[in-house]
Design a protein that fits this description.
Blueprint lengths: L3 H16 L3 H22 L6 H7 L5 E4 L5 E5 L14 H11 L11 H12 L9 H9 L10 H17 L2 H11 L8 H10 L8 H10 L12 H17 L5 H7 L19 H17 L10 E4 L3 H25 L11 H8 L2 H8 L4 H9 L2 H11 L3 E8 L4 E6 L24 H10 L7 E3 L5 E2 L5 E2 L11 E3 H6 L3 H11 L1 H11 L21 H12 L3 E2 L5 E5 L5 E4 L6 E2 L3 H16 L5 H4 L8 E6 L6 E7 L2 E8 L15 H4 L1 H13 L17 H19 L1
Parallel strand pairs: 1-3
Antiparallel strand pairs: 1-2, 3-11, 4-5, 4-16, 6-9, 7-8, 10-13, 11-12, 14-15, 15-16
Helix pairs in contact: 4-10, 4-11, 6-7, 6-8, 10-11, 14-27, 16-17, 19-21, 19-22, 19-24, 22-23
């Protein structure tokens, strides 16, 4: 091992040689540079898109999403575009594109060395220039993550490698077609077809020379040369494209002089992606499918997958109609309750709070405006206040239905209008469930041995809390002082009875049962008021939990997909429900279910029978939270469980009505309407029954034998 004293002379000798290099040393150094560069390039190749990925890019086959009854729900495209073949694109587009972006396109093999060298020299001199060919631009457009857009040597090399691969696999026409169908044009428009529709209200095949030049001109900078927001810049850039066509002898000078004076004549219309009948459902499905495809080496945008979902198109349409009908009626109530010059006025502390929470108010403060002046100015802005009122008082609705026998999701409505409010109130939203949470208290009590005929006194209750506080649950009517059975306490949703029952069971057991039955993502506070649904949960969790009740106490995780096939119909994967997880014993579960029949037979959910004429074997529960901020209703049928929530995005806003604010009048009509349609169309069987569990005791078996014998005797006679 070299010592420090030996190392010093060696380093000094090397340094001397470096300062005075020999001819051989210089030659070796010059030879090593390209070798090292080549090795670096070879090392980058594995980090660029693979051959199979590049082949797929020109064969766009988005995943087809089908309902359980075979109807097409949507397709998963990479972007909002319509792929058109090159022969259906106006020739003027291709001519303008090549003349402006890459006039040696047909002679190079991915890189234009002369253009690259010229761009490099200009960049080194301080005038940064782009030297990318159309093929290199296509590499960036197709693979923004693998190639990137950073102005680094690493990125340029990866871009060049990918461009060489594309040239090796694609013909020149295929490169042009793929480029024109993948390039972005702002406003969520991808590809020349969507651009033509967006800016000129026509197809790509119908574009004239001026329109073609305008769209090609945008490629240098979509925002900067946006013809809608920056028409002067866009017109100058269009004329630059025309001048390039003259330079490349694709347009004569006389025509150019005439054309450059003509206006843009934009006919702008934003192109919206088709949402389908279940946009919130397919939004959740897309996340799930991307994860599945990544794990199984598939691409949801190019591999032509056919995904058969659990959704029933008939039930989804029924749900959409029910939500739309009730949503319109409740919006009328909200508009009346929040009229300007009354509740929605400058003197309202709540309205002032809404204004202070807006981005406009914060921007005003950031410019140095005093808080009082900013508030006053905004509150006198009629259009601002109208938009704020419409946003805050827009009624929101969510709805979900599942088949309790297998956990398959049959209908999903996340909001009244996906385009207006894409937020998913089924899965993303957490709201207090109110009295729809009470069945977990009764279920825990029945599991502990309580009977439906056990009674408590309807009286004022005071429950001490930690810290010296006292919880005093109340009902809409004063305590009667009478004894009330558990069956009636649940049917009439008595808070005083439920609170007393909670004391005998304890919050921990109630929360444990709720989690076992399906409330598995939301945090449940272990406090006495949990009995009345004070811990926020999602509608999906609640419908899943009620599905457990309808499935004899066995929890099944909600399912989105039953089968995935390739484009030839070969089954790639099938999905079956897992074995049900026992959450509540069959006997206790049936006792709970039977008590909840009373809710619709004579209790708070009786409108299911009286208004909607539903005679099937159903059970359910209404729910209303404090100040009527949330209305809930969930109904169970042996073959379908459906639930709805009604409220506002901001829980401080309510319908301001003790009648309409109740779940029995806000949410129940949606579920009732939906279930009535499902029964009429025979999607579910009106004769289906919830069956009581078999009692295996000696006395019960003897009683069953006696009943059978009596039946046989009377049948013979």
């Amino acid at each position: 091992m070299l010592t420090l004293s030996q190392l010093k002379p060696l380093l000094a000798d090397r340094l001397r040689r470096f300062r005075r290099p020999t001819l051989r040393g210089v030659a070796w150094t010059l030879a090593a540079v390209p070798v090292l560069f080549l090795l670096y390039v070879l090392a980058l190749i594995p980090f660029t898109p693979g051959i199979s990925d590049i082949r797929k890019a020109k064969q766009e086959q988005p995943a087809q999403i089908l309902s359980a009854d075979g109807k097409r729900l949507t397709e998963f495209k990479w972007a909002n575009r319509v792929w058109v073949p090159l022969n259906q694109i106006a020739p003027s587009v291709v001519t303008a594109l090549i003349a402006t972006e890459d006039h040696r396109f047909y002679t190079h093999h991915g890189l234009d060395w002369r253009r690259t060298a010229s761009a490099a020299l200009r960049t080194f001199s301080g005038d940064r220039q782009g030297g990318s060919t159309l093929t290199q631009q296509l590499a960036r457009n197709l693979y923004p993550e693998e190639v990137g857009r950073a102005p680094t040597l690493n990125r340029k090399l990866k871009e060049a490698i990918t461009a060489f691969k594309i040239e090796a696999l694609y013909t020149k026409d295929e490169i042009l077609e793929t480029y024109l169908n993948t390039v972005p044009f702002l406003y969520n428009a991808f590809g020349i077809e969507m651009a033509a529709r967006t800016y000129f209200d026509k197809s790509a095949q119908q574009l004239d020379l001026l329109q073609s030049a305008t769209l090609v001109g945008m490629l240098k900078g979509n925002s900067y040369y946006n013809p809608v927001l920056n028409p002067e810049r866009a017109m100058q850039r269009r004329n630059t494209v025309l001048a390039q066509m003259v330079k490349r002898e694709k347009l004569d000078s006389a025509n150019y002089e005439v054309l450059k004076k003509r206006p843009l004549r934009i006919e702008f219309e934003r192109q919206l992606e088709p949402m389908g009948v279940a946009p919130h459902f397919t939004q959740q499905l897309r996340k799930w499918l991307i994860s599945w495809a990544d794990s199984n080496d598939y691409n949801i945008y190019t591999d032509g997958l056919v995904v058969r979902t659990t959704l029933d198109s008939r039930l989804q349409n029924a749900a959409n109609q029910a939500v739309a009908r009730q949503g319109r009626q409740l919006q009328g109530v909200a508009d009346s309750a929040w009229r300007p010059r009354t509740v929605w006025g400058a003197s309202s502390a709540l309205v002032q709070a809404f204004v202070r929470e807006t981005p406009e108010y914060r921007r005003a403060l950031n410019t140095g405006v005093m808080a009082e002046d900013a508030l006053k100015k905004l509150m006198t802005d009629a259009s601002f206040m109208r938009a704020l009122r419409e946003q805050k008082t827009r009624v929101q609705v969510s709805f979900m239905a599942i088949d309790p026998r297998n956990g398959q999701i049959r209908a999903w409505v996340g909001s009244r209008d996906f385009g207006q409010d894409p937020f998913d109130h089924v899965q993303q939203s957490r709201r207090q469930p109110g009295s729809t949470f009470k069945p977990f208290v009764y279920g825990a009590a029945f599991e502990n041995g309580a009977k439906s005929d056990d009674t408590f006194i309807d009286q004022a209750i005071e429950i001490p809390l930690p810290g010296g506080d006292v919880w005093r649950p109340t009902d809409d009517t004063p305590p009667s002082g009478r004894t009330v059975s558990l069956r009636d306490g649940l049917a009439y949703s008595k808070n005083t009875i439920t609170a007393q029952l909670m004391q005998t069971v304890g919050p921990a057991k109630v929360a444990k049962l709720a989690r076992a039955m399906g409330v598995r993502q939301s945090k449940l506070d272990l406090v006495p008021s949990l009995a009345l649904g004070t811990s926020p949960v999602s509608l999906k969790e609640m419908v899943s939990a009620y599905g457990t009740m309808a499935n004899e106490g066995g929890y099944l995780e909600p399912m989105l997909v039953t089968r995935i096939e390739n484009s030839q119909g070969t089954v790639l994967a099938e999905f079956q429900p897992l074995a049900a997880e026992p959450a509540l014993s069959a006997q206790a579960n049936y006792r709970l279910l039977d008590a909840m029949r009373g809710v619709v037979d004579r209790g708070t959910g009786s409108a299911i029978r009286s208004r909607f004429g539903i005679r099937a074997d159903v059970a359910g529960k209404t729910g209303t939270t404090q100040d009527n901020a949330d209305g809930w209703f969930i109904l169970m049928h042996p073959q379908l469980v459906a639930g709805a929530w009604v409220g506002f995005n901001d829980s401080r806003v309510t319908l301001r009505s003790d009648y309409w604010g109740q779940g029995a009048h806000s949410a129940l009509p949606i579920v009732g309407d939906f279930t009535a349609q499902a029964l009429r169309s025979r999607v579910i069987d009106a004769q289906a029954k919830f069956l009581a569990p078999q009692d295996t005791g000696f006395f019960s078996q003897w009683q069953n034998r006696l009943r059978d014998w009596v039946g046989r005797v009377f049948n013979r006679s």
